[in-house]
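Try it yourself: sequence plus guanosine-5'-diphosphate, in.
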Amino acid sequence: MSTPLVALVGRPNVGKSTLFNRLVGGRKAIEEKIPGVTRDRLYGRSSWLDKEFLVVDTGGLTLSGREEMEIQVQKQAQLAIEEAVVIVFLVDGRQGLTYLDEEIAGMLRRQGKPVILAVNKIESVEQSIVDFYQLGLDDPLPISAAHGLNIGDLLDKIVSFFSPVPGEKQQEDEVIRIAVVGRPNVGKSSFINALLGEERVIVSQEPGTTRDAIDTLLEREGKKYILVDTAGIRKKSKVFENVEYYSVIRSLKAIDSADIAFLLLEAQEGVTEQDQKITGYILESGKALIIAMNKWDLVKQQRKEGHVLEIVNDARDDLKFVSFAPLVFTSIYEPRRLKNLFDLFQKVYENYSTRIPTPLLNKLLADAQGVNPLPALKGKRGKIYYWTQSATKPPTFVLFANNSSLIHFSYLRYLENRLREAFDFKGTPVRLLVRSRKRKE
Ligand code: GDP
Ligand code: GDP
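Structure, out:
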């Protein structure tokens, strides 16, 4: 899916570029020259919560006369409207409603795209914004771009229009993308071959060189899976000079484009430093994770009960920071173990894409805060008003609190644990984000 575009529209001097800079922050803007306007169009990247978007500041206009002005305004708004997912229509709350604002509003209303009416330069409660209701758009939102007032509310509104295109999402959901990763010789190629052995491989291309990234699509019981970038692994090159280095980059890329990272460890060796690094990367990437103690047949051969327990406990200990990830025991010599993996893929993927209704979350929050209220920090007590799931893959929750600095990390841990007790999040990371919000009376 491409990054959504947000257009800032409005007559000159209402504060578009000030708002643009506030949204884009220190990040670099990309300029685009537009004939007939005094300023270049500016594109910049911005983000709010877990959502990334592009902002375009549509620039100021040279107003030589009314007609020219109208043409320019039309042109400017048109360009922005065509590209944008949502339009922020900025007006000047100090100057009040003008004829030109009404012109722009009329045009925007006819376009049918979502418009957020932001009344800028509102820095005191005495300033009224009621005049702007006349524009016949959504409720005007008072902000101050220069002083950063109400920008959070504006961003909330902006990202609320970013819901994914339904068709696109469905297509995405049909196939589970799995990256099989692990150190050289851990058994990736053998594992994949064994996994594919009995299943119907729908597309399997032979890469010309190991540098080609080729995904393998397979089907099992009507469900489709893609093994990300594995063809090269299956047909390993003996000639490649820098296999280790290359395979790391390749793994990272595969992880990025997968839903589930399937990390193979050499059961007898336990968790190495490199394994931990890769695991850390997977955690950061927010992907679902399953960890396999591979070549399990070798461990079992030893037939020492204590030894087996030790191996498992050590691995769990070294991987404490991803305790949500199920640990499985695999061997190419025990196909039964491999067959069961498909159910696990389904389950983990379901958890990774799950959406918890807000009422259930808030019941849980009330209980959690009741049992274990937020401790006071520096004489002040934090309060979480509510939370809501803002995204899936991985499940991401936004907590609205009186003051985010009063919500300690350990309390988020506590809430995450409660969340995991109440709902099945096995195999998926969950993210908790905190936002400060003034209590609305
Ligand atoms: P643009 O032409 O719409 O891009 O407007 P600018 O961002 O260049 O701002 C026009 C003028 O309004 C500048 O002098 C800004 O300093 C001022 N301005 C912008 N935002 C605010 C605000 O929130 N409050 C006040 N008081 N002035 C602002
Ligand atoms: P890759 O480099 O991660 O792709 O590892 P390979 O698939 O090439 O396997 C490396 C070695 O481990 C080979 O000699 C395999 O035969 C062996 N191997 C792979 N899987 C297993 C297993 O489940 N059990 C045992 N005992 N050996 C395995």
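One thing you can check immediately is this: The chain is about 35% helix and 25% strand.
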